[in-house]
Write a structure and sequence with these properties.
Layout: E1 2-6, E2 9-11, E3 17-24, E4 32-38, E5 45-50, E6 57-59, E7 67-72, E8 77-82, E9 91-99, E10 102-105, E11 109-113
Length: about 120
């Protein structure tokens, strides 16, 4: 059972990246999926989450209007589309899958926003 975030990298301010959260060993269908990030010297914070039922998505105020999360159950993957990136978005990004008492964290992917 594994959850893996990928797609990070170095991008200039104003640029875009799409992160992927892929599961192996279990299906993401039925799990609520959250994206979190942790910047250097700061605590981990929630960025967004997408429900398992109707696909409703919720965002932190700091990313609202710039980030979009979506899920493709056929590919067993959840995405985080990040547009108009700012230096303050620099962090390691993690995905988290929750279903009842089951709670999985994936390895993070580093996003660096810098000119």
């Amino acid at each position: 059972v594994q959850l893996q975030a990928s797609g990070g990298g170095l991008v200039q301010p104003g640029g875009s990246l799409r992160l992927s959260c892929a599961a192996s060993g279990f299906t993401l269908d039925g799990y609520a999926i959250g994206w979190f990030r942790q910047a250097p010297g700061k605590e981990r914070e929630g960025v967004s989450c997408i429900s398992s039922s109707d696909g409703s998505a919720y965002y932190a105020d700091s990313v609202k209007g710039r980030f979009t999360t979506s899920r493709d159950n056929a590919k067993n993957t959840v995405y985080l589309q990040m547009n108009n990136l700012e230096p303050e978005d620099t962090a390691v990004y993690y995905c988290n899958a929750v279903l009842g008492r089951q709670n999985f964290w994936g390895r993070g992917t580093l996003v660096t926003v810098s000119s």
